[in-house]
Backbone:
């Protein structure tokens, strides 16, 4: 992993912490800068709809897009000890955070999973992003 990081093939995304005791320790998440390299290392080139790792694939794609918009140092992730998770917290400046949760399909979204985040961070807007959305009128951003 050290070689991949130093060669800029992967990026470790640090956790977003604001002194909440139940947030998991400092475990970073790993994302590839190039999805093609990721697919090559996995030797897996099927269409996203047919893949068992489609959630991780779409999440990695969103990381790349957010990195292009905000830079890598402003992208964090949030996870609690009981495995509540928000994929990305973008922090361009203190007090200007935005949260992003990425799902392959809109049917995977369960709003109750985000209650803990909203309770602790009511000032941070959460955007749900789905690759596939059955209803075009939903509040979900399509990639």
Residues:
């Amino acid at each position: 992993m050290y070689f991949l990081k130093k060669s800029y093939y992967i990026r470790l995304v640090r956790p977003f912490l604001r002194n909440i005791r139940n947030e998991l320790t400092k475990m970073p998440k790993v994302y590839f800068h190039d999805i093609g390299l990721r697919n090559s290392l996995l030797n897996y080139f099927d269409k996203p709809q047919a893949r068992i790792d489609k959630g991780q694939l779409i999440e990695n794609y969103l990381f790349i897009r957010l990195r292009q918009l905000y830079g890598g140092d402003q992208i964090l992730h949030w996870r609690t000890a009981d495995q509540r998770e928000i994929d990305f917290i973008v922090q361009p400046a203190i007090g200007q955070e935005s949260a992003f949760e990425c799902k392959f399909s809109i049917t995977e979204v369960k709003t109750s999973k985000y209650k803990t985040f909203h309770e602790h961070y009511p000032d941070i807007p959460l955007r749900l992003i789905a690759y596939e959305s059955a209803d075009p009128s939903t509040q979900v951003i399509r990639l």
User: Anything to note?
Assistant: Helices lie at 2-6, 35-42, 54-70, 115-120.
